[in-house]
């Protein structure tokens, strides 16, 4: 049974969904980012030291608990257009408190200012930055950030570079062509996303069979341990289902967790179910 906080979160998510449309304009994307920073950001707590990184890569580096050999690379979502580092601070801090390590939240280029492969280049630069400073890199990504976590690792593997120790992805998107059955079947049940819409404008060639655009075309052989999370009600449910299948087929140590009666990236909301999910993710990443 869902908590009362989860039921309230579903009501709030429905109001977000009502404001969505396939015709996102450049001005709307910029407005939504600024609005997210204004209304969803939290201050950096006293026990976390913030370094703003601007050279070679961009993002917020959080020093926590004096653990110097391990870092969590955090990649926010937002359809490559509307997400921000500051608006995801609360989620990132909640993970760091469970992991007891440093964190780096990547600020990557988005639409309308940039198009693919800008974000791919930025997460690769961020990963290289972290590998020069830490022995162990863990990656967490949500929604489009989950996609970038997958495409980053696929690129690293293809280039025979050292892979992250572990990855945890939440509500990943593995194809930019929104034709998975759940895109249609869950349209009424998912309170957060419309489903079965046009591809996001960030990609000039969303239909291209490129694993760095749609990880469904990737070779997952040799992938590091992976945890996949999703809600049972989300339009992106089949993305997680197929990702789990592809990884199992490739012999990956994969853990797929479906959160019953919940929706796309529900961990953005403060509720008991979020705490349960983050506990499980942290235990996996440790």
Word description of this protein:
- The chain has 286 residues and is of the alpha/beta class.
- It is built from eight helices and eight strands; from the N terminus they run ααβββαβαβαβαβαβα.
- Helix 3 (89-99) crosses helix 8 (272-285) and helix 4 crosses helix 5 (144-158).
- The mean pLDDT is 96.
- Give the neighbour order of strands across the main sheet: 1-2-4-3-5-6-7-8
The structural class is alpha/beta
Overall 3D shape:
globular
How confident is the prediction overall: mean pLDDT?
A: 96
Largest sheet: 8 strands, mixed
- Secondary-structure element series: HHEEEHEHEHEHEHEH
Radius of gyration: 17 Å
H/I helix tally: 8
The residue ranges in which pLDDT falls below 50 over 5 or more consecutive positions are none
User: Could you estimate the helical fraction of the residues in percent?
Assistant: 25-40%
Percentage of β-strand residues? 15-25%
Distance between the termini: 29 Å
Q: Care to count the β-strands?
A: 8
């Amino acid at each position: 049974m869902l908590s009362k906080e989860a039921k309230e979160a579903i009501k709030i998510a429905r109001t977000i969904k009502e404001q969505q449309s396939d015709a996102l304009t450049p001005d709307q994307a910029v407005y939504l980012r600024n609005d997210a920073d204004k209304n969803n950001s939290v201050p950096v707590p006293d026990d976390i030291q913030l370094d703003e990184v601007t050279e070679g890569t961009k993002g917020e580096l959080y020093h926590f608990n004096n653990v110097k050999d391990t870092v969590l690379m955090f990649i926010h979502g937002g359809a490559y257009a509307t997400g921000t580092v500051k608006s995801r601070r609360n989620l990132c801090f909640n993970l760091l408190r469970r992991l007891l390590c440093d964190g780096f939240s990547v600020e990557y280029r988005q639409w309308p200012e940039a198009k693919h492969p800008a974000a791919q280049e930025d997460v690769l630069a961020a990963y290289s930055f972290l590998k020069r400073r830490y022995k162990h890199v863990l990656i967490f990504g949500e929604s489009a950030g989950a996609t970038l976590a997958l495409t980053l690792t696929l690129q690293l593997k293809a280039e025979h570079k050292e892979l992250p120790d572990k990855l945890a992805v939440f509500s990943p998107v593995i194809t930019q062509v929104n034709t998975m059955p759940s895109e249609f079947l869950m349209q009424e049940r998912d309170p957060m996303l419309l489903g079965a819409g046009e591809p996001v404008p960030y990609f000039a060639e969303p239909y291209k069979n490129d694993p760095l655009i749609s990880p469904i075309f990737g070779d997952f052989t040799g992938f590091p341990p992976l945890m996949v999370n999703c809600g049972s009600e989300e339009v992106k449910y089949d993305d997680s289902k197929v990702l789990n299948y592809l990884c199992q087929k490739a012999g990956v140590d994969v853990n797929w967790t479906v959160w019953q009666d919940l929706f796309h990236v529900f961990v953005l909301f403060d509720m008991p179910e979020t705490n349960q999910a983050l506990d499980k993710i942290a235990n996996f990443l440790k």
